[in-house]
Specification:
Layout (H helix, E strand, L loop, with lengths): L1 H7 L2 H4 L3 H32 L1 H17 L1 H19 L3 H28 L1 H7 L7 H13 L1 H16 L4 H22 L10 H25 L11 H37 L4 H38 L3 H26 L3 H8 L3 H16 L1 H17 L2 H27 L4 H24 L7 H17 L1
Length: 473
Amino acid sequence: MNRLLSSLCPPWVREVPFRTIWDLVWPQMSMLLCTIVISLTDIWAAGQLSAGIQAAVGLTFQVQTLLLVFGWALGSGSMAAVTQSMGGGKPGRARNYVSFVLAACVGIALAVACIVYLLRRPVLILIQTPEALMPVTEYILGVMLLGLPAYYTGQVAGTLFRAARQVMAPLFVVMISCLLNIFGDLCLGLGWLGFPAWGMKGIVWSSFGANVAAALLSVHFLQRGGLLADHLVPPLRWLRKGAPYLFRVAIPAGINSMLWQAGYLVMYSITASLPDGVDALAGLTAGNRIESLLYMPATAFMVTASILVGNALGAGDKLAAKRAGITLFVLAAVSMSSVAACMWPFIPDLARFFSGEAAVQRQIVNYLFFNVLVVPFTVSGMVLNGVMNGAGATVYSMIVNVSCIWLIRLPVGWVLAHLVFHDACGVYMAMFLSMAVQTSLMFWVFQRKDWTRFALNARHTAAHRTAALKEEA
């Protein structure tokens, strides 16, 4: 039977490392499930208190996500550098990158937290925070900024683990963080099991404690896994050679993340400025968390694409890199479209679970209608972004993603929401349109552009070839 199946499959399919893909995907899916459970529990617990607190938590989460862009930038650079170093058989270079990125992320987080804390009021005004939500949102933001260095460390450390194919240690860390967060939300926030009900403060400080625990455990496991160099900052000589590539990948990734998340904040502002802004914000927040269930496996496929593409290009195998990219593109699109189809009949039930208010339920249903419908584009586009990340070609992702959100999603969303429908449905329609265009453009880049030329190995090969030509001349 195995021989028959093998003979029926095309040669390139037989060479795809499906077992390796599975071994990388399932722990990451479990990690992302824990992350989603944390987020959903926060939103659900806040919703049990009031729609206003639920909306405030959603707004603060968007600010936190925007502030994480520098960490994501470093993570993108380290993913490309570490995976390619491992694939090229250079673990020492990989350890230097890990240590440098970890030290840099802590320093950046401290600086960002201090600056935003001083400007927290103008920031909240800028994102159109309703005046009624200002006190509670400002308090949540202050606690979040206090824990930002720990949050940075945990998030970036997770990327470093995955880049080195060590996926079990971060899974354990996220599971512990998830349990701590759930306990805090339910027991300290809502007063379950006889604990004092501290309400919003219990929810916020539980997240803070879970992030600190995750950061400490992450550093411990990085050390035990042999991923940290003996020196916290690599020698100056190495930095002169290794750091430029990291920043060549990280800078476009940082711009991409910053403008993408800034776009989401503008989208939240467009939603908040509608006549039913508070209900729409609460619905958008809850809908976004429910939607994240669909993107859990897709994100795992995306990171796996970065790992396999980076390893292949580090070893100089461009064909294997392209084969891994197209395989994961198809697997993610087919599998997640099937899951979306199964979720479709239960959208109203999910809306009722996450909110007891009819107006918020209606917004959740409208949000999920469009965003579940666009799942085939969204998940396959995420994989292509992972391919570009692993190859170090983050400049392509930056150009496509930023153009689609700022030239399509936001202007079209404002027109549809404020001038046509006078409802948040206009925002959701624009999200559908921009995502379809974005994935189509990314697939064109994958097929038509030489994205493999951004790899470390490709640069070194080109340099050696140039040197050889000069010597021959």
